């Protein structure tokens, strides 16, 4: 049995039994439970009225068929999901993921994490997540559009600006959000802009939303470094992935004076000691929608590409895993520690395995968990909802300023909570407890619902 308080063991066993085979969900619950023993020792009222049991059971889970036709006229069937996990703090809020690996357990783990993350932002948003096992890679725009239209044809009845507000995630960017919103508008005959976030700037999107997760993660790591009198200036950094989060993490690190020397996609990683050429990565990933291996071909001398190796073998001061869950294991963590890593910030959701987190924490490496570090995306989505509600549009600087103060605030809340509960510097514990307390207080106020 994992390292959790004995009062929580029967609840955890029940979670395993009721959600058989959903290993990512088990992992996410276990990680939160490891922190909760200290809260219920101090505030036993939170263990009453089955509050923790209710917190582990999604309020609603929707699974549906998504039929669509490819350009050759062949019909395909995918499966759509939306897990509406917790609405104690506001409408369900969380992204949609289109990736062949998507299943109920993955969406459930993401929705569970999202509940605590959203609470940490201090904004009025509950937790949810959704997606499909559809693979957009290699599909034409018309195919992606038909898929999105079919997906929304079922999902729209469960959404609303006061009910559930999805956004993007892996495989879902501005193009997909546009198609989804277009179909929602057509089905409902309502221009309800606040029903989806991550929209284009010309139709209700927020400035800085595209950049928000990566920028926010960099602000969080910068705050962690500052507690030790350090900064990004002159640091060697490795950022995995080459998608939305990775690209804007690289951009902000560069602005803070750091040098990102490696990034990746699911086929391999590139190293460029002179500093990753961000414009080239954007061109490859956002315009050509091609593989990161193209980088060495287009950039040439002084760079190299490694297929299938671990990007974490590249020595660095700061590591920011920003691709996907469980992409950095205990062995990778040991190598990073041996190479002198100072700080690790999770840009992705749960990219480090529990073993890896333990290795970092034992070695005294500053470690920012995803539910705190990458909360800038959803926080800016909440700012997009605010702008939509007031039919307003803020400048980039104004929005980024709000983002930066939200991220500094999340950092300080996690640090103060860790300190209050006797574990200074433990951002995992700080994030779990601070998020939990906010959700638990609202759930207590609402009674048994
Ligand atoms: P994107 O789809 O834009 O990019 C994902 C990137 O990760 C792609 O480059 C993809 O490569 C790469 N990747 C996927 N699997 C692997 C792997 N096993 N090894 C190496 N690289 C891999 O997604 P996002 O950038 O939006 O999301 C990345 C992570 O951040 C996810 O965990 C997501 O949940 C999380 N997140 C995203 C937020 C957002 O605002 N977008 C907000 C908060 C969290 P390939 O093209 O080969 O698949």
Protein traits:
Rossmann fold; alpha/beta; binds NADPH dihydro-nicotinamide-adenine-dinucleotide phosphate; seven-stranded mixed sheet
Please give a quick description of this structure:
The protein is an alpha/beta fold and 449 residues long. The protein has helices spanning 9-18, 23-42, 51-55, 104-120, 141-155, 174-188, 209-226, 244-255, 278-287, 294-299, 330-338, 354-362, 370-373, 376-389, 396-420, 427-446, and strands at 60-69, 75-86, 92-98, 126-132, 164-167, 236-239, 259-265, 268-272, 303-307, 318-320, 343-345, 366-368. The chain folds into three domains: 1-57 and 428-449, Orthogonal Bundle (Glutamate Dehydrogenase, Chain A, domain 3), CATH 1.10.285.10; 60-191, 3-Layer(aba) Sandwich (Rossmann fold); 210-362, Rossmann fold.
The CATH architecture of the largest domain? 3-Layer(aba) Sandwich
Assign the CATH class of the largest domain.
Alpha Beta
What's the overall geometry?
A: globular
Radius of gyration: 21 Å
For the sheet with most strands, the description reads: 7 strands, mixed
* pLDDT < 50 stretches: none
User: How are the strands ordered across the major sheet?
Assistant: 9-8-7-6-10-11-12
| CA-CA gap between termini | 30 Å
Work out the helicity level. Answer: 40-55%
How many beta-strand segments? Answer: 12
Count of discrete alpha- or pi-helical segments spanning 4 or more residues? 16
How many separate domains?
3
Question: Which distinct ligands sit in these coordinates?
Answer: NADPH dihydro-nicotinamide-adenine-dinucleotide phosphate
Strand content: 15-25%
What is the H-and-E element order? HHHEEEHEHEHHEHEEHHEEHEHEHHHH
Named CATH topology of the largest domain? Rossmann fold
Derived structural class: alpha/beta
Residue-averaged pLDDT: 97
**So, the CATH homologous superfamily of the largest domain?**
NAD(P)-binding Rossmann-like Domain
């Amino acid at each position: 049995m994992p390292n959790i308080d004995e009062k929580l063991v029967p609840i955890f066993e029940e979670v395993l039994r009721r959600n058989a085979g959903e290993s990512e969900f088990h992992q996410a619950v276990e990680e939160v439970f490891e922190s909760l023993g200290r809260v219920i020792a101090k505030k036993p009222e939170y263990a009453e009225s089955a509050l923790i049991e209710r917190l582990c059971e999604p309020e609603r889970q929707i699974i549906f068929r998504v039929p669509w036709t490819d350009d050759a006229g062949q019909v395909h069937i995918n499966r759509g999901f939306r897990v509406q996990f917790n609405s104690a703090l506001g409408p369900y809020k969380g992204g949609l993921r289109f990736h062949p690996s998507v299943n109920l357990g993955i969406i459930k783990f993401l929705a569970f994490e999202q509940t605590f993350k959203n609470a940490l932002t201090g904004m009025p948003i509950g937790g949810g997540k959704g997606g499909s096992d559809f693979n957009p890679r290699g599909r034409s725009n018309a195919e992606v559009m038909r898929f999105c239209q079919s997906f929304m044809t079922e999902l729209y009845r469960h959404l609303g600006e006061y009910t559930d507000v999805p956004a993007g995630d892996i495989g879902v960017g501005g193009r997909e959000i546009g198609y989804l919103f277009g179909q929602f508008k057509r089905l409902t005959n309502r221009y309800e802009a606040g029903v989806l976030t991550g929209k284009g700037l010309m139709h209700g999107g927020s400035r800085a939303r595209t950049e928000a997760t990566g920028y926010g993660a960099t602000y969080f790591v910068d705050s962690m470094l500052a507690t030790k009198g350090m900064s990004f200036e002159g640091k060697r950094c490795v950022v995995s992935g080459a998608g939305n989060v990775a690209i804007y993490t690289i951009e902000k690190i560069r602005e803070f004076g750091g040098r990102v020397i490696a990034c990746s996609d699911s086929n391999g990683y590139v190293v460029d000691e002179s500093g990753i050429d961000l414009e080239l990565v954007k061109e490859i990933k956002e315009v050509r929608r091609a593989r990161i291996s193209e980088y060495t071909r287009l950039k040439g001398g002084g760079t190299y590409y490694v297929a299938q190796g671990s990007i974490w073998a590249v020595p660095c001061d700061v590591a920011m895993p920003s691709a996907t869950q469980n992409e950095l294991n205990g062995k990778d963590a040991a190598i990073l520690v041996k190479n002198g890593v100072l700080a690790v910030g999770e840009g992705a959701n749960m990219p480090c395995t529990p073993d890896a987190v333990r290795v970092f924490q034992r070695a005294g490496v500053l470690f920012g968990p995803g539910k705190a570090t990458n909360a800038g995306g959803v926080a800016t989505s909440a700012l997009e909802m605010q702008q939509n509600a007031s039919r307003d549009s803020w400048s980039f600087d104004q929005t980024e300023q709000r983002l930066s103060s939200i991220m500094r605030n999340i950092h300080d809340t996690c640090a103060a909570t860790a300190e209050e509960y006797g574990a200074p510097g433990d951002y995992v514990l700080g994030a779990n407890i601070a998020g939990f307390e906010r959700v638990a207080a609202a759930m207590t106020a609402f009674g048994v619902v």
